[in-house]
Amino acid sequence: MQEQQPAQPPDPTGAAERTENAAKAAGETQRMAAVRDYMNGKARVQMERLADTTPHGWMVLNYFGRAMGMANSLSRLDHPLDYQLVMAGVRTLFEMAVDLTLINSGKDTLEKLELWEHSALLEHAHALKRRHEEKPSFPLASELTGFLARASPILEGRELHWRRPAPKQAPPAPSGPCERCKREHEARGQRAAKRAAEPTEHPDRWTNRTLYQDALEADNAPGAGDLVDFYVTMNRMLCWGTHGSGAVGVRNITTAGFPTMHWTAMAMAVDVALRVTQLCLEHFKVADVQAEDAAKADGQRRYEHAYNARIAKGPDRAP
């Protein structure tokens, strides 16, 4: 007859669950530290050496630099209440992964992205200028006028993919005694003229599509296939943890829940940071599976050491 195991004592304070989740969070943070070291080591050296060998390669290096900076920051976020910053990091890295998948597959181009970056700077400069015109006391940098004069010609004469279609020719004014119709026609003409005179609208994303639409497009690339799944499953929750309105992402969360949110977000960050690194290396055709596997193994060793050390420390007070 099999010997019965003694029943576990009740844990009304949730201390054991908090300790387990805190240990997982410590482990995942150390896995991120291993990814950081891999990115800042061999991966960075390879890409810096090759950045000038491909058209616009420096832009991919910029993506990698931002991702490496994010990994460096994430590796320091080791408290359960850092979960919101970790979620913001995951959201940033995910968008990079979508972008790089589109670029590497040839579905979109770095030239297109570069034009969007110029347009983004101009959009910001025009917004500052408009605010100064509305409110003269609003401070306006003296360099702004010179910047607009230098930057505007960059986009002039370029076929921008988000440019508005040419306005249709206005229909002839209605005939007859209806003054109301004439006034409405004149007002429509004035609105059309004002819109035609405004700068080209600047889209939120450089593809002029939503992130969801881009994930759909990127999933058709070889080796992708799970970006839409991630978007549908996680993007809303990541935004809840990133944006300031409301508390939908944490309503009714117990004290044991915050370490859980921390380590699950950190685990996602590790995976997406590795994916961004892989995509950057693939752009330069120097993907190194052995180096990535070694980084993963190093991360697992660090995880186990940090996890066991945190378990040995015992229960801690609630965050």
Question: Would you mind describing this structure in some detail?
Answer:
- By secondary structure, the protein is mostly helical.
- The chain is built from ten helices and no strands.
- The chain has helices at residues 15-50, 57-74, 83-105, 110-134, 143-155, 179-197, 211-218, 227-242, 257-283, 289-313.
- Helix 1 packs antiparallel against helix 2, helix 3 (83-105) packs across helix 7 and helix 4 (110-134) runs antiparallel to helix 5.
- It is globular, with a radius of gyration of 26 Å.
- The model is unreliable at 164-168 (pLDDT under 50).
Percentage beta strand = under 5%
The separation of the N and C termini measures 44 Å
Total beta strand runs:
0
- Rg (CA only): 26 Å
The structural class is mainly alpha
Largest sheet: none
Q: Estimate percent helicity.
A: 55-70%
**Average pLDDT level:** 84
Element-by-element helix/strand order: HHHHHHHHHH
Which word captures the global form?
globular
Q: Extract low-pLDDT stretches.
A: 164-168
Helix-strand blueprint:
Blueprint: H1 15-50, H2 57-74, H3 83-105, H4 110-134, H5 143-155, H6 179-197, H7 211-218, H8 227-242, H9 257-283, H10 289-313
Helix pairs in contact: 1-2, 1-9, 1-10, 2-3, 2-9, 3-7, 3-8, 3-9, 4-5, 7-8
Give me a quick take on this structure:
This protein has 319 residues and is mainly alpha-helical. It has 10 helices and no strands. The protein has helices at residues 15-50, 57-74, 83-105, 110-134, 143-155, 179-197, 211-218, 227-242, 257-283, 289-313.
Describe this protein with a few key phrases.
single chain; 319 residues; globular
